[in-house]
Amino acid sequence: MGQFPITQNVTVVEGATANMTCRVDYNDNTSLQWSNPAQQTLFFGDKKALRDHRIELLRATSQELTIRIGDVSLSDEGLYTCSLFTMPVKTTKAFLTVLGVPRRPEITGFTKPAMEGEEITLTCSTTGSKPAANIRWFRNDKEVQGTQEVNATGKSFTVKSSLKFLVDKRDDGVAYTCGVEHVSLSSPYTTTEVLEIHYAPHVEITHSLIIPQEGQYFKLECISKGNPRPEPVLWFKDGGDLPDIERMIVEGRELTITTLNKTDNGTYRCEASNHVGTSSAEYTLFVYDPNALGQHGPDHALIGGVVAVVVFITLCLIIVVGRYLARHKGTYLTHEAKGAEDAPDADTAIINAEGNHVHAEEKKEYFI
């Protein structure tokens, strides 16, 4: 029978263990040998030839030679040769592929906090991958596209991906996540940068009553959003300080007027500031007399009467227009037919109709 060594390619992750097996279906006590990519003999049968504590013998028989390489490094990658020492020597090669595991990514280029309107660059980088890793960016849960750069570093690769954009207040608190994908990883390595953006305040005023009336309790609230949070907020009336601090009470962001009266009419302004800027909002207060407003709301009887009058007038207009159109509908006649209409019999009617053709210039249609 023919003798020929059989091997298989092996793929391992850097730092793991690689088992290299060589078999023959038939052997007449001829020795098997494993050699590394540099053609250095590792084992000849059960005899170790290379002093490398990482390489050990697992099995040596007349039909099999299996060795183990521990703590595999990228430099171990290459073609390994199994030789069967017949005449002539028969060889088979097996390729050992070593995957370089990427290092956990880092995000650089961002210094907290950023100012609204500033352009920033986020750079995610990872080293040590083989083959080159792939980097993906996510803004919260939505993927965004970065610019990727790959550089060889010895037998491994350094991969970088960058995002460049202008920030505004909508970016405050947004999480940018960089994910590194690689064949050696069961799940991506990720790292996250949460943005902090400083922006000027935005101010709104809310009020507790739609129709403020004399004697009522009334509250205004100044809602201000900004980063840093604008504290405290300031209240003004008609461009000056609040005139009645006994009835006009400021607590935090709220202005409360305990008992409304006509002197409270005017424009109230809330102002909020931080180191980025200042913003304000205004509310014009008009205090109503409860006696003038009435106690039962709108007069429904009056509204019903107005609607009835409008409907009656509309119906009258429809009747008048209809009669006018009926009276002026008329009968449509021509000069050719006019003579025939007054004839006492059919023959006379025909003669009268033909006579009208002599005066062609008088043929005009008209209504009577």
TrEMBL record:
GO cellular component entries: membrane
This protein's UniProt keywords: Disulfide bond, Immunoglobulin domain, Membrane, Repeat, Signal, Transmembrane, Transmembrane helix
Protein localization: Membrane
Residue intervals of the Ig-like domain: 5-97, 105-195, 201-286
Membrane-spanning intervals of the chain: 301-326
InterPro entries: CD80_C2-set, Ig-like_dom, Ig-like_dom_sf, Ig-like_fold, Ig_I-set, Ig_sub, Ig_sub2, Ig_V-set
Keyword Translocase: no
Domain of life: Eukaryota
Membrane topology: Single-pass type I membrane protein
Family: Belongs to the nectin family.
Protein name: Cell adhesion molecule 2b
Organism (species): Oryzias latipes
